[in-house]
Write a structure and sequence with these properties.
A: mainly alpha, Ribonucleotide Reductase, subunit A, two-stranded antiparallel ribbon, B: 2-enoyl-CoA Hydratase, Chain A, domain 1, 2-enoyl-CoA Hydratase, Chain A, domain 1, six-stranded mixed sheet, 21 helices
């Protein structure tokens, strides 16, 4: 039992006493490391990187900084502190004590929820594995790796639940998480959005802004779960997820700031002429990633979501703070729904509240995204530009849910297929746009303190270090 | 829809001829006579119904079953039993309609299942023990009364211009004859289906010459000649029997389990209830001693006999008294080698009338397990003895869990009785039914000598899952909890479908087809709604109102 120790695997789940968990991890951990070596960030595995590691769940312990080689990163297992006498806060079993073990009745459903959540974590590492070669700065390179190792830790968090509570099936699912591959047609990742490569940094920032924010809302909903270990696990993950969204929001924000600067410098107001990303192209990337991320919430009208809620498995974000009716049996959610047989026409439906739980969660997400967009627009305003970013309608460019069969403009107007095809490249990045954005990143910028031309430097460095700190050491 | 507040629990499922209220058993050499004389006020819930016209309830049938069993064990000299009635002009009017009307649905279904098992036991006695049955219909046999006659080898009907045989359930009650009647009419007596169709829709039934022509009875006999012909036919049937005239009967002593709120304790069987989990643990203990030298040494305490009689009694208790129990964990305790010794003994002694009786009793108890509407999980733990006849429990289970722990190894072992001596209702061994997809495996598994450890048992397909010591508790807990959350109706239907793969027999048709339809009809408004036929039965002049759409 060399690899499995409290020292190597920081944890607050009593790993040293838990034979079941030890046995499972002995099997799984070598496979995880093998996966990390072959599917993790390419080209930087032997570099010392200034990373944050969680070594305990308390305030001092969860953000410990030091140089570490990624394969030696101490992926730990942490649950947020147990809330004494916690009760289930919603659904049909509201008010009953939370479950410390998986109720047999919900085993399969919970396993599916955990596996679906868990699958996104290694998937995003796989999607981003080549980005190191085109990084816009050493600071950003380090942030990418921080995100990557933490996605790895989130995988560990979900694998812990599978190992600890789901027996042999759980162990098999944990292996499956290492066997699926993003973009592999034979064994793809579960959710479609996680099978597209992220091979440029603008997409990476958009992904961490929009797609990781879906993750935040899924975690918030699971943090309400009546299955206490899942709730505690996801609550701890949320602290890390906040950093990923920081990377996304400030990353896009720095591109916005630089694009605004270059727009003003260019006599024709075209940032592209000066080697930056023009604002309309930024809007197109926003449209793409925001709409892809909306899909991840699932269908607007969902019996699955209703039964998860009814059973006390998955609540709403901040169930306790934001809602008074935790049973949600009576209420309705008014929704505009495409007419059967004619997606061009919308009609008002009153959807039973429980069936609209995905949409309720999406509402919170949309508001959260809007706050980020508002901050970017302040930058534009301060620069004296009239251009403003806008979140497109929820109906725009959807592949999941009730709008997936129709075509809609960014302001939500129904379109014919021909109208959509004619306008598509005005709203979503065209092949030429993508080629251009990638051309800006043809060469990695890795000198300490230097920034690529297309984005602004961050206002400050990591952990009170300067921006030109040596975040990634040269190969020894 | 049935009443839910009636007390239908029974303190005991055992009885004895000295305690019979409804039957008389008399003996004359190789012929015994079993006469129905139902006491009208003697029903199990006498306050709710009167057992008029030799109509019956569960109490009547428990006595019938006891009588058949005792004829087999205690009276080897009896080669033919005459089933008749002591009431004038009426043989039996079938199950009591007011009893059915005032019973809960689960009770009705379990009552029906039990009466079916009793009639099958009568046929089993004829087929396998040479105890032939002659039904002497000295009066009308209606519904369940005629179904009882159908279970006999031969039917004589008195020809008095009045007595008829009938299955009036469809025209009178809007339900089915639920005790094998429809199946046996066409399948056993091979009545032509169009004639059967007419017969089953004619409330007054068929009498006289036509009853013979249509194969509904074997002979009609004038009143004056009736006793004589009955005696002649009984003698003729007795002549077909191989029962010994000099056999010494074995008295079946009462099992007298100790019954408490926690369950029931028998000598070799424990039934322990866990009401919170809607669970029961049914443990069968292996023998504490080896078998006697030959069948003449079999006593009432012989392990195979006693243990499987106890299992049978415990199953009835579970079915009737513990409706809330959804899942039964089947466990064993003891010495596997001793179980196999008893099995080999029975295999060797099956030519002896008593050895044969014990073997078939083991078979019938296991069949009762097969058709028990509870989820059955086989649990193979340290200290268990799932060998031979007890391994059948594991093969009867809906799924099974075997501990795989190097420190505390457990095993399963098969023996001579697993190869077909203890068939399921479908006529196949449980092993053959299990391996329908890989028939070659049956031989291979039976050729295996010695025990199967967990890995071997899993590979052979004898168990479903083999969790190790770390997973064991959780896997079991989750499997039990998950089962408890599913619809009990859907589970009953699902299990019954999955258990009986392979060929159809009259038995599988009765349990799988007839009773399934009957239970559906029993729930329908056309039978039990406010204006349903069963509800309105006996209310003169009020006609039922049907939803006329065919399903």
């Amino acid at each position: 039992m060399t690899a499995i120790s409290n020292e190597k695997i920081p944890n607050n789940v009593n790993l040293s006493e838990d034979k079941k968990l030890q046995r499972a991890l002995e099997q799984w951990q070598p496979n995880f490391l093998e996966w990390w070596q072959s599917m993790g960030p390419e080209g930087f595995q032997q570099r010392d990187i200034y990373l944050r590691t969680a070594i305990s769940s308390n305030v001092e312990g969860w953000a410990h900084y030091d140089y570490v080689k990624m394969p030696d990163y101490r992926w730990g297992i942490f649950l947020s502190d147990q809330v004494p006498d916690r009760k289930i806060g919603f659904g049909d079993v509201m008010g009953e004590p939370v479950w410390q073990d998986v109720p047999g009745e919900h085993r399969n459903t919970l396993r599916r929820l955990i596996v679906t959540q868990g699958d996104t974590e290694p998937a995003s590492v796989e999607q981003q594995r080549l980005l190191g070669h085109s990084c816009p700065s050493m600071y950003d390179l380090r942030n990418l790796f921080q995100v990557n190792v933490e996605e790895g830790r989130h995988l560990w968090a979900m694998v812990y639940l599978l190992h600890r509570f789901f027996g042999r099936d759980g162990r098999e699912e944990a292996e499956g998480l290492l066997e699926r591959r993003s973009g592999n047609p034979d064994k793809p990742r579960i959710l479609g959005a996680f099978n597209e490569p992220i091979d440029d940094w603008l997409s990476f920032f958009m992904f961490t802004m929009f797609t990781d924010r879906d993750g935040k809302y899924q975690l918030l909903a699971l943090a309400e779960s009546g299955f206490d270990p899942l709730a505690r696990s996801t609550r701890f993950m949320l602290t890390e997820e906040a950093h990923h969204m920081f990377v996304g929001e400030t990353g896009v924000g720095r591109v916005v700031a630089r694009s605004a600067e270059l727009t003003k410098q260019d006599p024709n107001g075209d940032a592209r002429k000066l080697g930056g990303v023009d604002l309309p192209t930024l809007q197109k990337y926003l449209n793409l990633w925001y709409s892809l991320s909306l899909d991840l919430f699932g269908s607007e009208i969902s019996t699955n979501a209703a039964s998860f809620f009814a059973a006390g498995l998955k609540g709403r974000a901040n169930e306790d703070k934001h809602y008074t009716d935790h049973k949600a049996i009576e209420g309705v959610y008014p929704m505009e729904v495409p007419k059967t047989g004619n997606a061009m026409q919308l009609e008002k439906h009153e959807v039973a509240m429980r069936n609209a739980m995905n949409e309720v969660l999406r509402d919170g997400y949309v508001d959260d995204c809007q706050r980020g967009v508002d901050r970017w627009n302040k930058t534009l305003e301060a620069a004296g530009l009239s251009f403003r970013f806008v979140l497109p309608s929820r109906r725009f460019h959807r592949a999941q849910g009730i709008f997936a069969t129709g075509f809609f403009s960014p302001d939500g107007a129904p379109l014919s297929k021909e109208q959509w095809e004619a306008k598509q490249s005005d709203w979503l990045p065209s092949a030429a746009d993508k080629t251009y954005v990638k051309s800006l990143q043809a060469k990695a910028v890795v000198e300490q303190g230097k920034m690529a031309n297309w984005l602004a430097p961050p206002p400050k460095g990591v952990n009170a270090k300067p921006v030109d700190f040596e975040y990634v050491r040269a190969e020894a | 829809m049935g009443k839910d507040n009636v007390v239908e629990n029974l303190a005991s499922f055992e009885t004895h001829p000295s305690k019979y209220k409804h039957w008389k058993l008399s003996f004359a050499g190789e012929v015994a006579t079993l006469s129905m004389d139902v006491q009208e006020e003697g029903g199990l819930r006498a306050q709710d119904y009167v057992l008029k016209q030799n109509s019956y309830d569960l109490g009547v049938d428990l006595e019938l079953n006891d009588a058949i069993q005792r004829l087999r064990f205690e009276h080897p000299e009896v080669r033919c039993v005459v089933v008749t009635s002591l009431k004038d002009r009426i043989f039996c009017a079938g199950a009591n309609i007011f009893m059915l009307g005032s019973s809960s649905h689960p009770f009705k279904v379990n009552f029906c299942k039990y009466t079916n098992e009793t009639r099958l036991a009568l046929e089993d006695a004829s087929q396998h023990s040479g105890l032939k049955a002659l039904c002497a219909l000295n009066g009308t046999a209606a519904g369940g009364g005629y179904e009882l006659a159908l279970a006999c080898d031969e039917i004589l009907l008195i020809d008095d211009g009045n007595s008829a045989v009938s299955l009036p359930e469809v025209p009178l009650l809007g339900v089915l004859p639920g005790t094998g009647g429809l199946t046996r009419v066409v399948d056993k007596r091979k009545v032509r289906r169009d004639q059967a169709d007419f017969f089953c829709t004619t409330a007054e039934g068929i009498k006289g010459k036509r009853a013979v022509e249509w194969r509904l009875v074997d002979q009609v006999v004038p009143r004056s000649k009736f006793p004589q012909v009955v005696a002649e036919r009984a003698k003729a049937l007795a002549a077909q029997s191989d029962r010994p005239s000099d056999g010494k009967g074995l008295v079946l002593e009462p099992l007298s389990p100790k019954v408490t709120a926690e369950g029931a304790e028998y000598r070799f069987v424990s039934l322990r209830l866990q009401p919170k989990d809607r669970l029961a643990v049914l443990t069968v203990r292996g023998p504490d001693a080896g078998p006697p030298a030959d069948a003449s040494g079999i006593t009432c305490d012989a392990w195979s006999l006693r243990a499987f009689r106890e299992l049978d009694d415990a199953l009835l208790r579970l079915r009737i008294n513990h409706l809330d129990v959804g899942t039964v964990l089947l466990k064993t305790e003891g010495d596997a080698q001793k179980v196999l010794q008893w099995d080999s003994f029975l295999e060797k002694q099956k030519g002896h009338w008593l050895g044969r009786e014990v073997l078939h009793l083991v078979k019938r108890s296991l069949k009762r397990l097969d058709v028990t509407a509870k989820t059955l999980y086989g649990i193979v733990e340290p200290g268990s003895c799932f060998a031979g006849s007890l391994a059948e429990l594991l093969l009867a289970a809906d799924r099974s869990y075997m501990l795989d722990d190097a420190e505390r190894p457990v095993s399963i072992e098969l023996g001579p009785l697993n190869a077909g001596a203890l068939p399921m209702p479908n006529g196949l061994s449980r092993l053959a039914t299990r391996m329908l997809g890989t028939p070659g495996k049956v031989k291979e598994i039976l050729a295996h000598t010695g025990p199967f450890d967990a890995a071997a048992a899993l590979a052979a397909g004898l168990v479903t899952f083999t969790p190790d010591e770390l997973d064991w508790d959780d896997e079991l807990r989750v499997a039990i909890e998950e089962r408890a959350s599913l619809s009990p109706d859907a589970l009953t239907g699902m299990e019954a479908n999955l258990r009986f793969a392979g060929p159809e027999t009259m038995e599988t048709k009765i349990f799988g087809r007839l009773t399934a339809w009957q239970n559906w009809i029993f729930q329908r408004p056309n039978a039990v709604g406010e204006k349903g036929a069963l509800t309105l039965y006996g209310q003169a002049g009020v006609r039922p109102h049907f939803d006329m759409r065919r399903t």
